[in-house]
Amino acid sequence: MDIDFTSWLGMALRLLHVITGICWIGSSFYFIWLDNSLKSPNDEKDVKDGVKGELWAVHGGGFYHKKKYQVAPAHMPEDLHWFKWEAYFTWVSGFLLLALIYYFGASQMLVDTSKMDLDPAEATLLGLTAIAGGWLAYDFLCQSELGRDNVKFGIVWYLLLVAAAYFLNQVFTDRGAFIHVGAIIGTVMAANVFIIIIPNQKKVVASLLAGESPDPRLGLKAKQRSLHNNYMTLPVLLIMIGNHYPMMFGHEYNWLILAGMGAVAFLIRHFFNLKHKGIVNYIYPGAGVALFLVIMFLSAYHQTGPKAGKGEIQASDVEIRQMITENCVMCHSDTPTHASLDVAPNGVMFDKMDEIKKYADKIHQQAVATEAMPIGNETGMTAEQREKLGIWIKTLKAKE
Ligand code: HEC
Predict the structure, then answer these.
(1) Are 365 and 389 a contacting pair, CB within 8 Å?
(2) How high is the pLDDT of residue 5?
(3) Does the Cβ of 326 fall within 6 Å of ligand 1?
(4) Is the CB of 378 within 6 Å of ligand 1?
(5) Which of 48, 82, 221, 276 ranks highest by number of CB atoms within 10 Å?
């Protein structure tokens, strides 16, 4: 019996990561909406009790009447919900998944010897340093003078992330670089909850219980971090999903595509934040969609794929078959010979010519339009080979 434990563990972790991520972001979006949608209370008694806003909602066959207290209710309820485990579990499952795929599989997934000749341990250390360094830099900026100005802070933090994308891309595989930018943002968000938001809220509750008035700086600091997390949610999701699309992570200018897409995600988020407050301005999503389209066209314009009019490097079927055998079949086979694999990844195999033809579009996407395959360019596939492969696929498609 042969059980592929790595894949089963990977699936379990990914499932956990997605589920806890939905819970975290779902509750976060819900509270942002709730907070922005509150109306002043109608009831005199509520006003006297310190209620700042209230809201009625209907869901699941019943009515909900929510109230938000300005500081705290006169008596602490026995049962107070905190909403923090979602964040912690999203981070822990994400980190384990990162370790499983990119650190245990570092030689394939993280190291690209054509960029930098790292051994797996060095690459792992560099990845962990980038994540920790990201949090330290972010936290330092938040506490500095800059942290007081949301717009200026946002611009500086955004530029720092773009710089991180650029530099990580000089040392890691394209995907490895992408996922680390996502890991930096995700870690900052989870650390904001763990190190700042929840401890500060606990201190506020403790001083209220002791009959003292809480230090207003605690609340302000938590609010600043909450606002940052709000704007980082969509970009982080974009990276996690973009990491499965080679036209994003595998492009020569992938760090610029990431920067542009980050801006798209910001614009969409900003639109909804304003909309909850009753300000509907379609300029933001309009600009977001326009930017998305611009990125789409610009990225195609700058593709590494074959140029037209180079008929002279037309390759024969035999030559292509040999190229695929040398560069792909050690992994993409019914019986892979690559040490790290027991079964063909995603069930994609190139043992027969029919299979190569069947997957022609995907091969183009992974090995011609982008250099996502062979992973980490382990076999040293050359630009000329990719060009030949591209022209062969183009001819094949034209015949169909
Ligand atoms: C070292 C092993 C390895 C080599 C060599 C390799 N691949 Fe892959 N390939 C993978 C893995 C692992 C995946 C799964 C990646 C994922 O889904 O995250 C994959 C996925 C794919 C996919 C599927 C994408 C999808 O949408 O399901 C295609 C197509 C592909 N590779 C093409 C190629 C081509 C073409 C070559 C040779 C030029 C090649 N691969 C060489 C390991 C390899």
Answers:
(1) no
(2) 86
(3) no
(4) yes
(5) 221
Cα–Cα distance for residue pair 366/372, rounded to 1 Å: 5
Residue type for position 179: I
**Is the alpha carbon torsion for 85, 26, 244, 297 positive or negative?**
negative
CB atoms within 10 A of CB 283: 10
**Residue that the structure tokens 């797996």 belong to:** 120
Say which residues have a Cβ less than 8 Å from residue 106's Cβ, sequence separation at least 6. 120, 121, 123, 124
Q: Is 394 in the pocket of ligand 1 (CB under 6 A)?
A: no
pLDDT of residue 302: 66
At 261, list the tokens.
């897409």
Nearest CA to ligand 1 atom 15: 345
Which pair of tokens denotes residue 327? 């560069």
**Assigned token pair, 288:** 């977001």
| 142 and 224 Cβ atoms separated by less than 8 Å | yes
